[in-house]
Amino acid sequence: MYTQGLDAKAEQGNQPSPRLVTEEEGRLQQGFQDRVDAEEKIEPRDWMPDGYRRTLVRQISQHAHSEIVGMLPEGNWITRAPTLRRKVALLAKVQDEGGHGLYLYSAAETLGVSRDELIGQLLSGKAKYSSIFNYPTPTWADIGAIGWLVDGAAIMNQVPLCRCSYGPYARAMVRICREESFHQRQGYELMLALAQGTPEQKRMAQDALNRWWWPSLMMFGPSDEQSAHSSQNMAWKIKRFSNDELRQRFVDATVPQAEFLGLSIPDPDLRFNADTGHYEFGAIDWTEFNEILKGNGPCNRERIEARRKAWDDGAWVREAAVAHAAKRKQRALKKAG
Amino acid sequence: MSTDLHREALFGFTLRLGDTSLVLGHRLSEWCGHAPELEEDIALTNVALDLVGHARMLLTYAGELEGKGRDEDRLAYRRDVFDYRNHLLAEQPNRDFGHTIVRQFLHDAWALELYERLCASTDATLAGIAAKAVKEVRYHVRHSGDWLVRLGDGTDASHAKVADALGRLWPYTGEMFERDEAEQALVAAGIVPDPAELKAAWAARVEAVLEEATLERPADGWMQKGGRRGEHSEHLGYLLAEMQFLPRAYPDATW
For B214, which residue in chain A has the nearest alpha carbon? Predict the structure, then answer.
């Protein structure tokens, strides 16, 4: 899971630095840009501008953190899944998310940061993760809504990242997208079972859609007028489409799916424009989005506290593993010497 | 020995194994997102996934043997504590990571020896389930055994924690080797392995790992029993209340 909106502020740091660029640097930068323009992949040992490296570290690690924090709201329902088939599917899904976190931390490590450093930034609150996971999952239908809407929105964002100019990130995304699209279908199928179920189940499904619809639209980040700093990321081919373009694609794909479920999208202004072939939708309440970014979402504190607790409670385990590895090495040396 | 009696005994055996897998899988799944490191979040979830997978096969088969139309979900979600037949070991709470690992290793070592033998069962369905499960359980026992060695032979603090867990959990291991008359008949028919022989193999496996982990094997004193007959600890009721909430709250729904 990943949201472009996270980088809205961070991108300001990517503007070309005001200091003079030496001739040598200028040549390197030109060579780099030429390769990017030619759709060549940039690899870890290649020269790259500092801003490019910083942007990628930030974006990939935020993406990794989002996968890890995202395990919590969904993990919340593993022990209560209503059938064994659903339980196994949810376990597998949450496990996949842990796996995505792992590839993404590894991709970030190719840029010269360590996983522990990045996790430290998450736990200290310095690093961001997708705000969508600061919403709670009070009912079983939330598991369906997350798969259908949140993974659906994530896929819109992530498919273009498979063509990202940075090789390790692009390759990680290929695998992640394959799994995410499976999760999305699974989520939709779960919603379908509810929508076709008893009146109580249908009510549960509608309630979840009501709560997840707008936050899902916010996952694409601020509107293009508000997000003026993304041009550099476009030039670097880290980003391929604007926030509004991707949001529109998501709405166009999702509204007919909701209709098929017999559920209503909680937007009185939603209508199909036959001239443009697109759905027009109401204004997004960015106040809520900004408050959650500031840490005032319903679950911001709980999510980070849960991650910190896992980390702190596990300290003795990690220490034991290190101590044991050292003992083994010592014994092997003794044996050899 | 009539086939009907075999069938009933086999239902009991399969249900016990299925319930033990399900309850232990549930316990492990409680770790998801809360493990000491990301690799363990993934590994514990993966073992949980395998165990629930085994439970599905076993409960489905148990339902068929019973012949009353109960499927895996009916058995998992609509029985109360006294109808559950899992080992008491499986329902013990996670406490800390060390306690979870000790519980898991004591179980995995048993499950591996059991499934290896069940692959040769004269009951083709059970042999088929075992053939699938044994591949996964081989990995489980390596995972829990490796961790037990790391924690036992790690720091003083980690050693103390797993030694304490081992002392607490050892009295729950006797139940894994109990047998009643009905099961005796299954042993005679070559359907399930002989518990005495199973116990010797389990003990050898456990002792080898404990030695590497610099842990002492507790003495076989009084053993806690009852899970196999539906007599459980207080923990199982809460576990089932959580697991069964949705089907109980919405009895007419399909999911």
Answer: A324
User: What pLDDT, on a 0 to 100 scale, did the predictor assign at position A8?
Assistant: 45
pLDDT at residue A227, rounded to an integer: 72
pLDDT in tens, B43-88: 999 999 999 999 999 999 999 999 999 999 999 999 999 999 999 9
Residue B24 contacts A, CB cutoff 8 Å: no
Confidence band of A11 (pLDDT split at 50, 70, 90) = very low
Query: Cα distance from B38 to chain A (closest Cα, Å)?
Result: 7
B154 reaches A (C-beta below 8 A): yes
Q: Which amino acid is at A213?
A: W
Secondary structure in 3-state letters for A197-226: CCHHHHHHHHHHHHHHHHHHHHCCCCCCCC
Instruction: Give just the sign of the alpha carbon dihedral B191, B196, B197, B199.
Output: positive
The domain spans of chain B are 3-218+225-249
The secondary structure of B2-63 as a DSSP string is: -HHHHHHHHHHHHHHHHHHHHHHHHHHHTTTT-SSSHHHHHHHHHHHHHHHHHHHHHHHHHH
Nearest CA distance, A61 vs chain B (angstrom)? 14
Residue B234 contacts A where some CB pair is shorter than 8 Å: no
User: Mutate which of A77, A100, A317 to test chain B, going by most B C-beta atoms within 10 A?
Assistant: A317
- In this complex, how many residue pairs, one in chain A and one in chain B, have their CB atoms less than 8 Å apart? 138
What's the CA gap between B126 and A319, in Å, rounded?
42
Q: Does A99 touch chain B (CB under 8 A)?
A: yes
Task: State the nearest Cα–Cα gap between B126 and chain A, in angstroms.
Answer: 20
- Using CB atoms within 10 A of its CB, is residue A203 exposed (0-12), middle (13-18) or buried (19+)? middle
**Pairwise CA distance, residues B103 & B165, whole Å:** 8
What are B169-224's pLDDT values in tens digits?
A: 999 999 999 988 889 999 999 999 999 999 999 999 999 999 999 999 999 999 99
Domain spanning B3-218+225-249: CATH superfamily: Ferritin, core subunit, four-helix bundle (1.20.1260.10)
Tokens for A13?
A: 């740091």
> Considering only alpha carbons, which residue of chain A is nearest residue B34?
A310
Tokens of B23: 């309850």
Residues in chain B closer than 8 A to A102 (CB atoms)? 38-39, 42
- For residues A271 and A260, what is the distance between their CA atoms, to the nearest angstrom? 16
Please give the model's pTM, rounded to 2 decimal places. Answer: 0.94
Q: Residue B148 burial (CB < 10 Å; 0-12/13-18/19+)?
A: buried
Angle, helices A84-109 vs B38-66, to 10°: value is 160
**Alpha-carbon gap, residue B179 to B187, rounded angstroms:** 10
User: Does residue B60 contact residue A88 with C-beta atoms inside 8 Å?
Assistant: no
Interface membership of B103 toward A (CB under 8 Å): no
**Interchain contact, A313 vs B73, CB within 8 Å:** no
